[in-house]
Amino acid sequence: MSNNNGNNNLLHFDKTEFQHDLISWFEEEMRSLPWREDRDPYKIWVSEIMLQQTRVDTVIPYFTRFIEKFPTIEALASAKEEEVLKAWEGLGYYSRVRNLQSAVKEVHEQYKGVVPNTPKEISSLKGVGPYTTGAILSIAYGIPEPAVDGNVMRVFSRICSIWEDIAKSKTRVLFEEIVREAISIENPSYFNQALMELGALICTPTSPSCLLCPVREHCKAFEEGVQAELPVKSKKKAPKPLSMVAAVLVDENEKLLVHKRPNKGLLANLWEFPNVESQPDYQSPKETLKQFLEKEYEVDVDLGGAFTTIQHVFSHIVWNITVYKGTIKTEVSEREDLKTLSLTDLNELAFPVSHQNILKAFLKD
């Protein structure tokens, strides 16, 4: 492992040569991405929030649609939450976009619509952690701040042969120190983007393409032949399975019954089909569902057979949802969070992926 006591010992390579090799490679190889077309701090911010836990290829069409709908800070600040959630639908981790909108409102009100350019101000915004702070400051404003994500930790754990567990927060701090020392003062934007690009395209989690790597000559892990063993990352607990039962219910006007989730917690404020946790040991899933519908929504329904099973994996739980179809036999007392809607109206609302898949299966069936 590299000696990391004190800043002067963090780097074992020639900093100037490393910067030159990395940035020259990036200038030739950088991918054409919509948020790279200009240095608009707002667009860079949106892209960085979208890219957390989501692949670049997935993000591109979402980013393009989102910016078309909310092209400026002001547009996003004044948009209705329902519209914002709908534009985000399918990306998951909805708290990211809620925090983004809250922070954008603050920028609109406190900073006259201009994204702040100091670490203190920008990191005080909701949902903006050290990585996003560094990414916006370096890419949009050319300020030499580290932007350390999983890609960057993987790259430097190999380059410096660091065997600390990257799942621990103190390890991230170590990598921030390394990047702060290694970063190009002249071109921090390309330096940070090049590190991210290198981690995405060359220095990948498994089977890194070392022979194509522009900074291979500076890499200790390659020299020692241990690149496949790094980075060290402790495993997360396996998500807990949860059996659910749901229903697509149609009334006499061909409208479907949907319910809005609470405004806090998992998938807050998204719409869904009626569902409840099933307890097979206690009673049949169908019976559980029927009783739930009568008690929760005061509706009498005629339930048919199950027509699909949907699995959806979160970081901490796995939903296994058995879905029934049924008809509503009584009048529904609609309220703010309970509505019967036509298919056209349903398209206006934001649903979690699992419930989008329920609707697709229902329409196919």
Structure characteristics:
single chain; 365 residues; Endonuclease III, domain 1; Nucleoside Triphosphate Pyrophosphohydrolase; four-stranded mixed beta sheet; three-stranded antiparallel beta sheet; 43% helix
List the SSEs and their pairings.
Elements: H1 15-29, H2 41-51, H3 56-69, H4 73-77, H5 81-88, H6 95-110, H7 119-123, H8 130-141, H9 150-159, H10 169-182, H11 188-201, H12 220-224, E1 240-250, E2 256-260, E3 271-272, E4 275-277, H13 285-297, E5 301-313, E6 317-328, E7 338-341, H14 343-346, H15 353-364
Parallel strand pairs: 1-6
Antiparallel strand pairs: 1-4, 2-3, 2-7, 5-6
Helix pairs in contact: 1-11, 2-3, 2-8, 8-11, 9-10, 9-11
